Amino acid sequence: MSTVRSDIVLVFDPRFSGGTAAAMLADAQAFHAAGATVGLLPVTSGFFTGSEDKPNAAVLDLAGLSGFDVLAPGTAVAADVVFFHHPLAFFHGVAETADILADTSVLVAHHPPFRGDGSLEYDPVTTTRIIKKAFGTSPMWAPVSGVIRKHLRSFLPFVRLTGSDWVNTFDAGHWAPRRQVFDQAVATVGRHSREDPLKWPDRAADVTASLAPPGPGWATRVMGCPVQELKASGVDLSSWDIVPFNGEPVDRFLDSLDVFSYFHSDRWVEAFGRTVLEAMLMERPCVLDQRLRETFGPLAQYASPAQVPDLLKALRSDPAGTRRQCSEIRGIVAGRYTSAAVPERLQSLRSDPGTSMRGGPVQASPLVTLRKLAGLARRERSAARRARKVKPE
After folding, report:
1. CA gap 241, 15 in Å, rounded
2. Which of 72, 86, 317, 356 is packed most tightly, with the most Cβ within 10 A?
3. pLDDT of 213-225, one tens digit each?
4. How far, in Å, CA of 34 to CA of 173, rounded?
């Protein structure tokens, strides 16, 4: 069998949406802009089981661009660097295999292994073994944030981590606000995310408080909203302007907001928060869940949902100050997460030996991690038994 050569190979399930797809697309475009040839190896993961899980059109469109080659399953591939995207895609098994020989192999960890309640959603050690069996290479784990790195340290020394996080990047030129905040008679508070209840607070009162107009002259606008679930929990959506997920270009949607307000479920761990950075690049002030302080630090304001209305009024009371601060934050974000730095980061990755040393904060102790692994194994066995059970006629 002849070997196909690419500078970069991306292995991914095209049914991922939201931040994972956007991050992979930004990387792919940055690789291409730097002159690299990019091989695309779409896989079919057991993670997606519903008919509603459709391939992401923007990801599929890469296949038609010059410099991107779709690799057939079973192909022998040689590459400088291979990126496997999202651990859940591989933990649940993939239908396709390939023989990949790469100088550097990494799994981009877009999602934490521990859930918000402390249980495990996947096992990094098993995930590494599955990739080795299917593709012939054992990747280093490249966390997208310090939050994910802390989670993955709990599994050292049985996996290897990259020396630096593989953070999301942005083409700052694309994210250009067309209007300043608070320049109209009606100010708008809103947010965007996948239509996943975990991306929203668990209590109806918290959902309402985090997005409710604090008085006359305010409106609420969201893109990507689990309407039925929120209504069932008692949230009154009658006055909201609700746009379907990806119903508008994200930059245009954010341009319609004056404040970005984002809070999530207690069961959710926000791996990175790409939507928040998009809002910052569009010079929108961000009012966030306290749990996001670890990621965004002084770039945002933090509150409980009940405190949001007062924060909204304070931001609007000093529009010039709010605009000035948002402009400064945009400059910081554009410099820290610029796609222009991807070639340099890629070069560093090629010489990264990885680490299995356990230094630094961890999400769970070895004993707790072992208990959680045992619990995950029990749940997986139970799910497999249910899947094998024949339904009565």
Report:
1. 27
2. 86
3. 999 999 999 999 9
4. 17
